[in-house]
Amino acid sequence: MQYFRTAHRIAATLIVIVTLYLSVTGLMIQGVDLRTLFHHAPASDPNIMAIRESFDGPADYQVIGVPDYTAPALQASADLNFMLQTVMRSARATLGDRPVRYVELRMLDGKPAGQVESEGEYVLFDGLTGQLLSRGSSRSGEQRTPSIRNNIKWYHRMTIFGNWVLFINVMVGIGLVVMILTGIALYWKMWRTRKQIGSSGLFWVGGDWKRAMHRGVGFVAAAFLLVVALSGTWLAYESLYLGFYMHRMAQLHTSPNKDVSSPLKDSELPRMLQVTLDSEQSKKRASPIKVVRLRYYAGMPQGVVVAGTGDDTRQLVFNAATGRVVSETEPGYPPTGFPFGWQDHQIAKSVHRGDIIGMPGRFMDLFSGLALLYLSINGIALYVDLWTERNREGHKKLFWVDMQEHPHLETEI
After folding, report:
1. Same domain for 112 and 126?
2. N or C: which terminal CB in the chain sees fewer CB atoms within 10 Å?
3. Per the domain annotation, does 113 fall within a domain?
4. Overall average pLDDT of the 267-289 stretch
5. In this predicted structure, what is the pLDDT of residue 138?
C-alpha cells in the first residue's frame, strides 16, 4: 500500500497549486452559469450566449440564432410546400439563374417569410405573396459578445497565458486521475483491512480529524471527480490538438473556414422539404417548428429544423435524401481541428460541466469543484504536518517512500 500512498502524495505535491486554481475558476464558471439559468436570462444575454456557444456546430453549420429562441412558430396549418414554391418563383424572378446556397422558411414580423442566399446576397420575400421585402448583403454570423463567463473560462483553461499552457492542463489532468485512482485504492485496502476485524462502516475516524475528513470527502466525491478529471483532460488534449491544427493552417496560408455548400437544384427542393418534414414528424415531437432551411452541406442534401419554445428551442438536422438524423460530425464533413470531430468535443464539454443530464448534473459538477477545493487545501495541510514531523527527524526531502510495511526500502526519492 506504500506505493499507492507515495504515488498519491507525489502527484498531489506536483499539481496541488494548479488543482486549487482550477477548482476556484471552475466553481466561478458554474456559479455564473447557475445564476444565469436561475434568473432566466434572455437569449441575448452574453452569458447565455456563451453557454450555448458552439453546441449547434461550426458557424457555417449552425442555423439557430439568438432571435429564434423568442421567434414565433410557423402556423401548424401553414402550407410549407406552397411557401417554398412562392419564394423560389420570386427568387428566380429576382436573381435569374444565379446559384442558390440555401432557402429558408420562417416567421418574420408576424408573417411567413422566405429567405434566399445567393453569391453573398441575402434576399427576403413574403412567404404568401412572394413580394420582395429586402435585398442586400448576406447575414453575417452572430458576433461573440464579451461575457463574464468566457472571461473566467479563459483563466480556467489558462489560455490567457497562451495556448501552449494547455499542455500543462493535460499533465495536471493526468496527475489528478492518478490521485483519484490511488486514493480509491488506498481507501479500498484500508476498508478491507477494517472489515476483517469486524469494522465494515464506510466512514471512520483514524488519526486526526484532517485525515478522517480527507478520507470521507474523497470517498463520497471520487466518482464525480473522476468524471470531471477525465473529461477535463480530454478537452485540454483536444484544445491542444486544435491549437497545433490552427498553427499548421496558418503556416500553409489556408483558412480552416471553407465554404462547403453546393448550389441547390430547384427541382430537388420539394422532395427535400417533404423528407425533412416527414422526418421531423417521425420524431414524434410536439414542438412547434420555427425555421426550416434546405441546403447542401459537404455534398449532403440537408433539411435543418429549428423547433421548440423559449429556452427549449433546438436545432435538428436531417439528411434530406434519406430522412436520417445527422450529427455535427459525419463522413465527408470538412475537418474542424478536433481529433474526433466537432460532435464529440461538444459532448465532452457537456459532460465536463454536467449539463448532459440537466440541472442535477450541474449540481454534481458544483459538488465536485467544492470537493476538489477542500481536498486540495486539506491535502496541503496534511502534507505540511507530515513533512514537519519528518523534518524534526532530519528528513528534509519533499518526496519519500513510506516505510510502514517495508523497512528495507528506507530510501528517499
Report:
1. yes
2. C
3. yes
4. 87
5. 59
For residue 121, list its beta bridge partners: 118, 137
How many residues are present in the chain?
A: 413
pLDDT at 403: 53
Q: In what helix (H) or strand (E) does residue 194 lie, and over which residues does it extend?
A: helix 166-196
pTM of the shown model: 0.89
Domain that holds residue 304: 66-141+260-333
- Beta-carbon neighbour count of residue 408 at 10 Å? 6
Edge-to-edge strand ranges of the sheet holding 314-319: 132-137, 121-126, 111-118, 102-108, 289-297, 300-307, 314-319, 325-326
Domain shared by 242 and 271, yes or no: no
| Residue position matching grid coordinates 500512498 | 5
Q: Please give the grid coordinates belonging to residue 150.
A: 468566457
Do 226 and 265 have their domain in common?
no
Between CA 314 and CA 293 the distance in angstroms is: 14
Same domain, residue pair 106 and 183: no
Q: In three state form, how does the secondary structure of 297-346 look? A: ECCEEEEEEEECCHHHCEEEEEECCCCCEECCCCCCCCCCCCCCCHHHHH
Taking every pair of C-alpha atoms in the chain, what is the biggest distance, in angstroms?
A: 92
How many CB atoms within 10 Å of residue 398? 12
Reference 15, options 163, 182, 220; nearest CA is 182
Q: Which three cell numbers stand for residue 408?
A: 528495507
Q: Could you tell me if 164 and 190 lie in one domain? A: yes
Query: Which cell numbers hold the place of 342?
Result: 466537432
Tens of pLDDT, residues 48-87: 999 999 999 998 899 999 999 999 999 988 999 999 999 9
Residue type, 200: S
Q: What is the DSSP string of 344-358?
A: HHHHHHHHHHSGGG-
Is the distance from CB of 6 to CB of 400 less than 8 angstroms?
A: yes
- Is 411 inside a domain boundary? no
Cα radius of gyration rounded to whole Å, the chain: 28
* Confidence (pLDDT) at 141: 47
Domain co-membership, 276 together with 293: yes
Q: How many domains does the chain have?
A: 2
